[in-house]
Design a protein that fits this description.
Shape: elongated
Largest sheet: 6 strands, mixed
Helix content: under 10%
Strand content: over 45%
Oligomer: single chain
Number of strands: 38
Distance between the termini: 68 Å
CATH topology of the largest domain: Jelly Rolls
Radius of gyration: 34 Å
CATH architecture of the largest domain: Sandwich
Structural class: mainly beta
Number of domains: 4
Amino acid sequence: MSSIPRVFLSVFAGIAILSAQQSTLPTPLQSGVTVAFALPPVSVPTLFPGTYSYAIKVPEGATRLEVNLNADRDADLYVRYGQPVANGDDGGMVVADYRSETVGGNESIVITGSPMPAGTYYIAIKVWAVGAGTTGYLVATTTVGCQYNLETSEISMTAAGGLGSISVISTPTCVWTAVGSAPWITVYSHASGISSGLVGFQVAVNTGGARIGVITIGGQVFTIRQAGPGAVLVPDNAQLISQFVAGGGQWSMDIFVTNVSTRSEGFTMTFYNADGTPRTMPIQGSGSVGSITRTLASGETQLIQTSGADALQQGWAVLVPNSSNASRLSGFAVFRSTLSTGSSEAIVPFMDPKQSRYVLLYDNANGFVTGAALANPSSTLTLSITATARDEGGQMVGSPVTIVLPPLGRTTFSVSDSFAGTGGQRGSIYLSGSAGLTGLGLRFSPQGTFTSFPLVTSPDIQ
């Protein structure tokens, strides 16, 4: 051996190290497939690692992993999640998450969860019988539970009711049943099924107040909101204008509406008070009205302007396109204050009614004041908003505040007045609604001028 040059010894050593690394890889198992094993003789009880160990990947949604060992000599079975099974310090107790250590060669481990963590589970065998080698069989079986999803989770309907459908997406071969929660909801087709399918339902005419019911399918809930007679339904393609002001000798508003489609499109713009009740607004050419109905040709932009009034008129508006399938309209509003000392104006963007989580950035430093206007676009549901203030470092300031808005209700507030500890500071307000909401940030300078800014969408807020 001494006659071999050192350079070759280095090469041999590198090959040996590489071979040792390769030998540590466990043998992959397929769910439900039995494998035969043969372990070499041992002189002392031995835990077999490396190529003598095994691993199985458990998929998302699995609810059970069962591992069974059948050996011809006394052996124990171990399973560990995420890392290989190993001997403890100084060869002590085996490091594993699950173990079966009965006398003999038959061992079994069952791991369950709803669901259980997905990933790699490592399996190892420890042999106690010394002398001859050990042979046997090993099988690991994963069970994936039935998973159900609905293409959409809710629908809003007028008092007239009508027909609707729900698209169900489920694990193949899984059985589900659709069950309505109220007598005014009838599941009339495919009340049960296997795998994916379509459920038809009918909602009866509503002669009373607004109501809510559900259809439960495979543990998933589909919510039906039905308005009462005369209620205005706010569809998903509506455009919301969270700030609407006029009159008082200084306030005016311009609303620009553009048809961005290649076809003509009509709309109705309706005005509301802070408590959700209908209100009138002074509109040039129309007088004091509760709503405006217009039609725009393809590519056309129309300007709607408020007119003068003795007192300040304040509320918000919902713009509903005539087409129910998609929004073909876009635009924004500009509101301004005109005084002898100067004027200010701010933009109010059109917003959709589906977002429920936002962040309001605030800056109350150096005499500035941040405010906000929030509105509930639902015509049937009371909206609960959890508002949590944070400082510039992201730390919570004070306790969370709950803001409750009635159907089609609205509120305005100053951040420093509503959230203790934010005066003179900068930071953010996390807004998490129980359903869709809309809003706008307002920033006032020490001189009394102002501007607006949008809320930041944040789907990760809990």
